[in-house]
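Q: Here's a chain of 447 amino acids. Please give me its 3D structure as tokens.
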Amino acid sequence: MDVDNSMPDAMNENPSALHASLNDNGQQQLQGASPHEVHRASLAFESNGKPFSCCFAFCKGSKQGDLLPSDVMNTIVQATLIHSTWGNRRDVNVLQVLHVAHGGGPVLHALPDPEQGPTSGFEAQHNECLEHHKALVIQLDAAHELMLAPVCSAQGDGSVVPVFWGYVLCPGMASVAFGLLERRQMALIFDLDETLVVAHTLSTAESRRDECIRSKENMLQMASQETNMEERQHFERMAGCLQKEADMLNFDAELLNQYAMSNQVRTQKGMFTPRLESVVMEDGSSIQRPVIRLRDGQVILTRIHPHDRKSSVIVRVRPGWKELHSFLAGMVDSQQRFEVYACTAAERQYALEVWRLLDSNAALIPVPLRRQRIVNVGAGRLKTLPNSFGLLPFGEEALGPLAGAAGEEQPPMDVSRQMPLAVVVDDRTVVWEQPSRPQILQVIPWA
């Protein structure tokens, strides 16, 4: 049986050639390969199952530091225990799911041990995995697992060699990929502040307003000292933009002051009083927040803690969100193509409230799923795709610098943390770890 021709050409080595080379040489080294590329392993199941021997042959480009951290590669070499299987469903194309989740070809091939006979446990296990549509799972550490998918490789003489393709993934990523493929969706991960909204409390609005005024004055001073006409006009335009931002912030501060002091706001269109909106908290309790929506929901006043007027917030929604929300919710053509998440560095209750205001009918993230799909990043930690999917807690592996400055040492590449079926919408790339950055659709900050 040949590999499905509909699959992309993922192999960096021909498994048939690898197998032939091992048989001919009877050694744990490929012709022309460095010694670390092929290793003999004896694998046993954690609970039950017959142990078997195999040889791990690393693919080109999978050497230490190229695709995975060196400690993960070393753990693979020392692996001896299969702790579970994945798939075991007739509707699961294991190879397709792992290939998509990994974003490319395998890290290694698990080949029959040339010192074992054709009726070895390797072939029996390979046949069982093929028949039951499942992959073998070897837990490497808390953040990595090696998943072995059965593949049949046809040789030149017409015979077939059983091979496993090995993919290193974050635990749970295969199930995420399968769910998205099954529903024909992609994952869409939003940042909140300066991507979808700009929000202020009274103190931050006043502070930012004063900063804009100072910057405007500096720009005007620089313009007055500039002899080059184009540069002078540039500084004057910048000063004009800063004045407009200061005027808007002053308006927001006035609205927030009215809202906090009297629970109502007056604009040119009249007096507006809040509507009490019921909010279900994560612990199951309910509170009522006083909410005022202005300008068809483009400007919203809310209070994170209803009895604390200092927690009053004004939220300006990015133009176009209403139309995008309708499209993502399937209201345009009755097709919901995206599974939506939010990943933000903002405080938890603030993030939940902002999302509730953006998705008031819970069409994108149902209320019971908000706990899982709205993720908050702690201070000093980078955003990651596994964390965004709720697969890993924000631990030491998520720590890192928030910028890739010139000369700054970058963390090692880790393909297990990628997810090609995800799109991230954020105004900043440096707040994401390196493997996640290819998935970012960077937008101009909304401020």
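Q: Can you summarize the key feature?
A: DSSP finds eleven helices and 20 strands in the chain.
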